[in-house]
User: Fold NYN domain-containing protein from Chrysochromulina tobinii.
Amino acid sequence: MAAAGPASPAKRTSFRKIAKEGGDRNTTKAVDEDVEVDLRDPLLFIDGYNVINMWPRLKKRFQKGELLEAREMLLADVADFTISRFESVVVFDANGAADRVEGKDREETYASGLVRVVYAHDSADAYIERETKAQRAEGRPVRVATSDNGIATACAMYGASVVSSQFMVTELKASRNAAAAIIDEFNRRQVRAAGLSRPLWDALPSDLQEQWDASIQADVDKRLTKAQIAAKAAHEELLKSGALDRGAAARRKQLERQRLRRRPGAEEAGTGATEGDAARGTMDDEKPSSLFDVLEDGLFDA
Assistant:
């Protein structure tokens, strides 16, 4: 966080006032006149620790003593919420801070100046009350988020709009969800623009997919030759009987026997492998069994 600079001054603009001449209703003239108008965003004071203790996911951190993490999480949500809406000031108590300077508040900025962070030397309540009074005296709109009844009453008397910390939490959650939705929609548009969107088929209901799949398969079956139909029927029969699975098991047994024959020192280990077996194993390696041989082995093994 960088050190905060002075508060932004009120912006001025000029209006052309229409004045009546000589009391004549129908005769007017334009008169240039400078009128001071405050065009700054409304000021939003947030009682930092008060809001943190109203938000369960931040309160957990606070209770564990992870104050820095809790503050960072709050400031991140406030930064998203405040864009083009408020000039937000999050105020924390700094009574027990090691770097506290007597009689002086410490100010920082967060998210490139989107949020001002104040560590009040006395208390967050006292800072919010005196700043609200000063800003309202200048005519600036002020909004305060706190659940402390005393500070809420005082700020309301100065003309500020006061909301509870719980309401502020609800607003921050809604803002975060809206931001996530905007990002998701942007990503979807980028995917569509790149031609990477999901096929239409994936978007169809599962029952409609099955119906169309069956229709497409029936159309394919009409185009098969007699030999292809016979081969397909034989394959389906093998699947039903489990012969393919038995054939695969037989092939695994055959590969295991070949591996044992190639193992060094098989004769010394008493595996019973002879030179003839080794020769046959070599021949098996050079000429693997066909699928029908494997199937036959599997059927006879069964």
Observations:
- The beta strands are 13-20, 28-35, 43-47, 87-93, 106-110, 115-120, 142-145, 161-163.
